[in-house]
Design a protein that fits this description.
The protein has 191 residues and is α+β, with helices and mostly antiparallel strands. The protein folds into two domains: 39 residues; 143 residues, Nucleoside Triphosphate Pyrophosphohydrolase, CATH 3.90.79.10. The chain contains four helices and ten strands, in the order E-E-E-E-E-H-E-E-H-E-E-E-H-H. The strands form two sheets. Strands 4, 5, 6, 7, 8, 9 and 10 form a seven-stranded mixed β-sheet that branches. Strands 1-2-3 form a three-stranded antiparallel β-sheet, with no helix packed on it. The longest helix is centred in the middle third of the chain and has 13 residues.
Length: 191
């Protein structure tokens, strides 16, 4: 590898829904000193997230679903409010998020607007999230949504008024980072 980092060894420790690898790297510090570093990195692929908003009715659409890490961390019953999101599964990010919108919410949108890309937790995970916004209205509702049974999803759809966005953020009721990022965009752009 070019620059100050050379990968010396790469070992797969686990391969399942995600992959865990151990890397040994030679790292050159800014002062020129060299050191060996060992890092374990998860790779479950990249993802996409979207904030659905209805400009006519001044509403946003979020979802609530169970997340095991949330429960294991001691947060209530493990259910968390999030924006619609999913893994890319080898699709282009725009295609993936349009598919997720339909599966999770039942809305069929044609266009999404990309606003950001960001690494979720770059210290230990390779995942990069592609952030989108999309307009929705009742004419786009194809079915009730709720997720895919084959993916063991059980999703509740929630609508909030634009005027509720500040309280959602300030109250701490939104604890998902990608949703906080998208709601901050909405607070700046919609409220």
């Amino acid at each position: 590898m070019a620059g100050r980092v050379k990968i010396v060894e790469e070992t797969t420790l686990y391969k399942g829904w995600s992959t865990l690898k151990r890397f040994v790297i030679d790292y050159t510090r800014r002062d020129g000193r060299k050191e060996e570093q060992i890092r374990e990195i998860y790779n479950s692929g990249d993802g996409a997230a979207v904030l659905l908003y209805n400009p006519k009715e001044k509403k946003i659409l979020l979802i609530r679903q169970f997340r095991l890490p949330v429960l294991l961390h001691g947060h209530k019953d493990g259910f968390i409010i999030e924006c619609c999101a999913g893994m890319l599964d080898e699709l282009h990010p725009e295609e993936a998020i349009i598919k997720e919108i339909k599966e999770e919410t039942g809305y069929k949108v044609k266009d999404v607007t990309k606003i950001y890309e960001a690494f979720a937790t770059p210290g230990a995970h390779m995942e990069k999230i592609h952030f989108y916004t999309a307009k929705y209205d009742t004419s786009m509702k194809m079915y009730s949504g709720g997720g895919e049974l084959s993916e063991q999803e059980d999703i509740e759809i929630l609508e909030y008024g634009y005027d509720e966005i500040p309280a959602l953020l300030q109250s701490g009721s939104i604890m998902d980072a990608k949703t906080i990022i998208l709601l901050q965009w909405a607070w700046r752009e919609l409220v």
